[in-house]
Amino acid sequence: MPHGWMMGPGMLGGFMMVFWTILWLAFLALVIAGIVWIVRNAGGTGGRGPTQESVKEDSALKILRERYARGEIDHQEFEERRKNLAA
Length: 87
Prior knowledge:
This protein is mainly alpha-helical. The protein has helices at residues 13-41, 52-70, 75-86. Helix 2 packs antiparallel against helix 3 (75-86).
């Protein structure tokens, strides 16, 4: 076989070179997209941290539960305030 036989005008040399280049670039794009997806979802929040409102709501509910556990409020008041926090 002559030297450089795949790059000649016959044997689809030019087409195969373009095909493999496009295939390689598509593979690299998928790898980069996969890395970005992994990094964004690594924290378990989809790249977003908890909002300030959700942190306040969680801490308010925690305080409400603690007050109920200590007996500072009864069950009826606990339920009313919990419903208010959920609204």
